[in-house]
Structures are given as structure tokens and as C-alpha cells.
Amino acid sequence: MVRVTFLHPDLGIGGAERLIVDAALALKKSAHDVNIVTTHYDPERCFVETKNGTLPVIVVGNWLPRHIFGKFYALCAYIRMIYAAFYIFFIDKHPDIVVCDLVSICIPILKLFIRHTIFYCHHPDQLLTLPGGRLKSIYRLPLNYLEEITTGQADKIFVNSYYTAEVFKNTFKRLSVQPEILYPSIHTNFFDSIDIPSLDITLGNKKLPEDSIILLSINRYERKKNLSLAIDSLFALSNFLTEDEFNRTYLIMIGGYDKRVNENVEHYEELIKLADELKISDKIIFLRSPSDHDKISLLKHCTLLIYTPPNEHFGIVPLEAMYLRKPVIAHDSGGPKETIINNTTGYLIPELSAKAFAEKISVLIKDKLLRDRFGDAGRDRVIRTFSFEAFMDQLNNTVIKLIE
Q1: Stretch 395-402: mean pLDDT, rounded?
Q2: What Pfam families does the record tag this protein with (predicted)?
Q3: Which domains does the chain have, with CATH numbers?
């Protein structure tokens, strides 16, 4: 048995957090002693495995600021993670291995007293920051340098896709290390264990009929997720469907929402305003930070999934939809190119065009046999290529080899 601590900056309900939770579950299932240390945790906005006691969660440094007058988010994140790294030294049972992600500044601190470190690179942090002026460029310069140098100090580096591996190579030019691909997976036993009731969704005071055509979009309320494309595609659908088909079609948008994050609050309101301007607000349901049960229920009952981000690093949601036999329509870029097989498990759209998305959506709406065929192929692909067992074995073998 190996003692493993996962160190993550903010244990919410995003894709990065889902991977950390699944990795912790995988190592626990492999008979290792596992816990999670984080700098922020909200029991009302978390995955169920962290809430029901399956995975012990330790919160440290939450009192430290996340920003300074709305600025310096990255610097504050570095300080919080350094604090959390030092805290691990005082845990009664020192971990043999620490797995960290997103913020690499903690790695040299951890190596002072921890035998081995693993870093999971979802995407270089410096590429996620919004562009700014000259002062921001100067501010980011030392942070970007530190990110590259400290990332290279990990004993093992994973990335989530071949796409991210190429971005890693092009970004961290000083590093000669070749990261290993560890595809995220989904905890399929959890999906299988949830009892899914009949459709019970309301829009205002109106309950959606059983024969509703439900388009589902799942992503955080962030502008880079291009969520407006889903709304624009719904609007464009009226040109491809019969009047009856369009009247029965609804879009449900669900995603992570943190009231502490200004962009989440602002973008949520922007999307509502867009729906009003297009006069289709009566066909859209917005949900914020749904429970795992609600998300899986909606995936089970939807007609198809619309996945709108361009150049997504990996994207766990398409796998979740495919496992539940739902076709996926996504942009032909980034991680979805490695998960979705065009014309087999869904459609990859070359252009970020509402018309192009709407055209393929209409094809699937009109052809149930095609939806079923795509759905069966999607589930088979997840089981064969992205199984939780393969994810667990690869991670467990890495832990054992490091200790040996």
C-alpha cells in the first residue's frame, strides 16, 4: 500500500476536478491510502465522492486571498499552493507520493520532504490567461518561467491527450521531458448505479412533454467555452426542422457556476440576454452547478449533446454522453478529435458556425436509427478505449514503479 495525496487548488465540479476525483478513486480501488488536499472546497458544489466520505478532503489556506483588488489571480494561486504544499509536511502520515495538477509551483517545495511527485498537465496555465497589456505581460513573465521550470521537476508528467502533449512540447521549449498520455476516464460503476427516473423537467410553470427533443450543453459558464454557439444553433434549427419538430425542441444548458468568479456570473447573464434577443428564451433551460444525479439524468434523457468549445484540451463530457449512448456534435479541434469518431459516434464540425451545427443536429433529430447507431458505437468506444480499468491500471503501475 502506498500513501498518496492529491493536491488541487480548488475542488469544484469541473473536468479537471472530475479527473482528480477519478484518479483518487482509481488508486483507492488499487488498495492505496488516498486523500485530497485543496485550498478551497464547497460541500454544496462538489462531487458526491468527496461529500459522502469515500475520499477524505483536507482544506487548507482557504483564508488566503484569491485575488488582490480583482487582479493577480495567478500570483495568489501560487501562494495558496505553496502554503498547501508546506502543510502536507505536517500531515500525520507523510505521503509517499503527491499528485498535483494545474499549478506546478508546489513541486520543488514538495520535493524537500516527499519521495516522489506526479504532475498532471491538463493544459499549460500560461495559455489559459486572458490577454492583457504590457504590464500584464511583464507580470506574467516570471510566472510563466516558474511554471515551466517547476513542471520539469516532477518525477512523472501526464497529459490528457495527444493534442495537449503537442501544446506542452511547443510551450515548454526548455524541457526535454516527454510527458505520457493518460486519458481521463469516467467512473462507469457510478453511472451504472444511479437510478434514472422518468423525464421530469419544467420550463417556467410548464412541464416538458415526453416527446420533447432535448439538446444538451454541459460546460462551465465561461466565455472560452463558446456556449453562445449552442443558443445560436437552436435559433438556426428553425430553418432545418418542420414546425412540429422545432416546437418540440428544447435546449438545456447546464454547467459549473461559482458566484465568486465574476466571469461565471457575467456570462450566465449574457447567455440569458442572448436568448431573449433571439426570442427563444421559452425554449431554453439554464441550470447552474447541478448535482451528479441531475447531470446524469439529463444525459440519459437528452436526444444529443452539443459540445461547443474550440480547442478543448480533452473534454470529459463527450465521454459521459457516449457512455450513455448519446451522439455528440462538437468542433473538429483539440481533444474531441481523439474521443469522437466523425460519422460514427457523432459529428465533428470543421467550422464554428451555427448553421453547420444546426444542419447536423437536424439530421440526428430526424433519424432515430442513426442516433441509436451512433449511441451504440459511442458506448462501445468508451468501454474499449477509455475504460476506467485501463485508467486505473496505468495510474497504479506508475505509482508502483515510482516506489520501486
Answers
A1: 96
A2: Glyco_transf_4, Glycos_transf_1
A3: 3-185+387-403 (3.40.50.2000), 190-385 (3.40.50.2000)
